[in-house]
Write a structure and sequence with these properties.
single chain; mainly alpha; 4 domains; two-stranded antiparallel ribbon; 15 helices; 8 strands; 5% strand
Amino acid sequence: MPAYLCLSVTFHDERFHGRRDGGQPEWPPSPLRLFQALVAAAEAAVRAGGLTDDPTDALRWLEQQGSPAIVAPGHLVGTPVRVAVPNNDLDILAGLAQLTEKYVEELQPYQPTAIIVEFERTMTRELDFGRELRNLERFVKNFANEPKVRFPVPHPALSTGRVLVMDRLEGEPFAYVGKLPFTVDGQEIARLGARVFLEMIFRDSFYHADPHPGNLLVLRDGTLGILDVGMVGQLTPNVREDMEDIFLAIGANNPDKLSATLMRLCGQRGIRDPVAFSTDVADFLGYYRSQPLNKLDISAALTEMTDIIRRHHLVLPTSIAMLLRVLILLEGTSRLLHPKFRLTEVIEPFQTQMVADRLSPMRQWRRFRDVVRDWRDLVVQLPSHFRDIVVRMQTGRIEVQLEHHHLEPSVNRLVLGIVTSALFIGSSLLWALKAEPVVMGISVVGFLGYLISALCAGRLILAVLRSGNVDT
């Protein structure tokens, strides 16, 4: 007698969506988390002692079965809803970004194409559960000695690129902190969360990049639970040193150093007035440095600094922008637990440690070693580069590339002026020679040439007055 496995699913909205295009049943049936729920339930049963055998083989057997017979309510009849494929949306955004970068000069410094590429990379990584599994394992290892911090422990044997199995954390998100069924010290949890994220940044150089209230839990024992590690940031040694330069310039109240560091990071090609930028940075630094530490709003300060950068047509590197976003989100999320929370109170010890690490003999030795290696590589490669230049000179293949900026309006006005002058002179000759056809003694072709040259001259004068591009 054949054996059957019967699964009964109750849908909360009393609707069934488990049909592919064409009416074929899908497996696992919708919602897509049904199979993950089965795995989690089996794992919980094992831990509770309800199952004595390892359910792994049974779950693998279930995963390999073909499409089952699905019996669903028949009252939902309508047009199937097609879900847009993310790649299609990204292709549209990429096309719009390319057009914007090509034709909208004001937005070119913001590099719309690069923004879409980075957005696609981030979204693709967030959808890769295999990558999130590795991130979880790394965070669990980094905070193994922190009893007050918990990440969901993943189970690699039961996980794939599309299914991620991990422990369940019982707690309440920061967003519902006012409705907690248990008592916690909001100030302590807020400081703990800030300290944990700062340790990720300054100690591990590997941090959770999405600390919004839904990803942070207050567990019943007063510990901090952190979820959803699909979006992470990685600080390379160069990026870490750049961030240190920014923090040290702010700590030393050195506006010249801060403005020079920001211009170096953002690239000076887009900046139109370096003096005005330095003045804005000095005003910003003077305003926030005059405030007491316990009253300094670091999220407002970082937001104002990014506004100054944007106003002067500079673009922060993605790694720096993501880190600033994390700090702004972190302070805002922590204030849900403690409205008077200030991130500066927690970040000050890390800033002191950062200065000590930067001045440590071991780090100075590593920098000296890297400089020696760079000079060694330069000396080794210099003869081959010099020989290549000589060969190019001998074969006449030396190329000089000149890059100009903002010359298009001037060139267009010059060309239009030459065409207008030529048209005016030609029309004068036709008028003087009374070229046919002639009406009332006036050459019609000459008159039309005068009219067209007058219109071109008017457009040229208007463009010069407005200092604009005659093509627009």
